[in-house]
Amino acid sequence: MGIRVAIAGASGYAGGELIRLVAGHPEFELVAATAHSQAGHRLDVVHPQLAGLDLILGETDAATLADADLVFLALPHGQSAALAAQLPPEVRVVDLGADHRLADPYAWANYYGGTHAGPWTYGLPELPGQRELIAGATRVANTGCYAAAIILALAPLVAAGAAAPADVVVVAASGTSGAGKAAKPHLLGSEVMGDLSPYRVGTHQHVPEIKQATGATGLSLTPVLAPMPRGILATVTAVPARGVDPRAVLAEAYADAPFVHVLPEGAWPHTAATLGSNSCHLQATVDVDSRRMIVLSTLDNLGKGAAGQAVQNANLMCGLPETTGLSVWGVAP
Prior knowledge:
The protein has helices at 13-23, 43-46, 62-65, 80-85, 105-111, 130-135, 145-159, 189-192, 207-214, 246-253, 303-317; strands spanning 3-8, 28-35, 58-59, 70-73, 92-95, 121-123, 139-142, 163-174, 197-198, 219-225, 232-240, 260-262, 280-286, 293-299. By secondary structure, the chain is α/β, with parallel strands linked by helices. The protein has two domains: 3-142 and 305-317, Rossmann fold (3-Layer(aba) Sandwich); 146-301, Dihydrodipicolinate Reductase, domain 2 (2-Layer Sandwich), CATH 3.30.360.10. The protein has a seven-stranded parallel β-sheet with strand order 3-2-1-4-5-7-6. A seven-stranded mixed β-sheet has the order 9-10-8-11-14-13-12. Helix 1 (13-23) links the parallel strand 1 (3-8) and strand 2 (28-35).
């Protein structure tokens, strides 16, 4: 018998990707998957891509989840904390929501509102010292999707003194799955196709998370909805230290990171190359005119930006190699 796994919020996009990864994981055994409005439905009706998995979605409550060794919470922001508090302390929990990412209650109030539930161990293993903290934790807060792409591009540069932390500008495009599965008029195919549209300009909730993890003190983020199902392309710019080679700094920082790839000189990241993988692709240069540093970062928002990252964290929490059950390589075409 493997490590018993339960997934709350299994009817959403991240929940469906979690089920796919857990079902193919050599050490995990899926014992429960729960939903809210879809409770009582067959899993393969809600997620046709998971045909052959004979499972009925259950009600999302602590009693359904508490029998597992490991629980993934793929719930809307603000709904994880109360449920997690009802689970036994020995049950390992990875929260894909935002409830436990931020250490600063004022940042939580400004960007999310409501009661601040307090921070858990932050779930980005590539940050210095974070693998060890995750491995020793029973409660881990998974990253946000934009946050993962931007932190991986920026954190080593700020830490090395190669990028000025007070002047970071990011424009990042994301596929529509990042907005969740709920039916919304602005996400209809006829609205999205053939269009790029900015949203939450200057107010995106991942900004305090990115600042917390990178040490940036001034950050402007413009998110853009792109006409594709999944993927993120982030363009991160900052003022570099004189004579710095940002690509060399990133290559050294991620030399031993199995899921972060600094591409060869002249190769630029694109979203399709990370589709279905748990990888992040990076490239960096210095603008010949403005002399600003430019870092391009791509990842699958449902992979390294959500479900894949959660499984990577869970692997570490369970004493497994962090790559277990995850793909480094994308799917093409």
